[in-house]
Design goal:
10 helices; 3-stranded antiparallel beta sheet; mainly alpha; 237 residues
Length: 237
């Protein structure tokens, strides 16, 4: 049933479908699930070349046992405004983290980013992240350092406690991240161009680097134009 958890039989059908060379959509039809469900299931359990039904079932059981909940006050009651379901929110945060890992983020960085995304304030301290994710301060520190480098979060001082830092995700996070990506493309293009000059434009290696430099420079320029246009039409300040 769509929306219900995958059963061992579903996972066996997925493994069989992969072995037979079926695409994700065809496998999804076999088990009457959305293609996105099959995509997430395979991605979080080793990918198409390493997916095993029994291993995936055990991994899912382990994740369910250790899945972190939302922050709890001293009395132990979950605090979620507007009557929202804390278990559903926690599950969404975990699935978002899995997707971000599939897209290339380190696991802990993905968990921190997804935690900030589902927080109404969009801002948490290191101590709050440690509590919500049940990890060490060192793990959070490394993750937020990576996210800052990628321009995905910002470090701010807590107005109530000037010595405590808050890590914040804003509405324009992807705008800033894409601009940072464009800048990295520009640096790579410049470096490739210098390599082409060094090796000589007439040599095969020089031509290869020159082509790479042109491509990276054009992609970076296109990306900047696209995000600036979107920023202006969306009315971002």
């Amino acid at each position: 049933m769509p929306g219900a958890r995958l059963s061992p039989q579903d996972r066996l059908a997925i493994a069989t479908g992969l072995a037979e060379g079926l695409d994700y959509a065809a496998i999804a039809r076999l088990i009457a699930r959305p293609t996105s469900t099959v995509t997430r299931e395979i991605a979080r359990n080793g990918g198409p070349g390493r997916y095993r039904a029994e291993t995936a079932q055990r991994a899912t059981a382990r994740r369910a046992r250790r899945r972190p909940g939302l922050a709890r006050p001293a009395g132990g009651a979950v605090t979620v405004p507007d009557g929202r379901d804390p278990a559903a929110i926690a599950d969404f945060a975990n699935r978002l983290a899995d997707l971000l890992v599939h897209l290339g983020l380190p696991r802990m960085a993905a968990r921190v980013l997804s935690c900030l995304y589902v927080t109404d304030s969009g801002s948490l301290s290191s101590a709050e992240l440690v509590q919500r994710l049940t990890v060490s301060p060192a793990s959070v520190s490394k993750a937020v350092g990576y996210l800052e480098e990628q321009s995905l979060i910002q470090r701010e001082r807590d107005g109530r406690n000037g010595r405590r830092e808050q890590y914040t995700i804003n509405g324009d996070v992807w705008y800033r991240s894409l601009l940072a990506s464009a800048q990295r493309n520009a640096l790579l293009a410049e470096f490739a161009r210098s390599g082409a000059d060094l090796l000589g434009a007439a040599s095969p290696a020089g031509q290869r680097l020159d082509t790479a430099a042109d491509f990276l420079a054009e992609i970076g320029a296109d990306l900047i134009r696209a995000v600036e246009l979107r920023r202006s039409t969306a009315g971002m300040s």
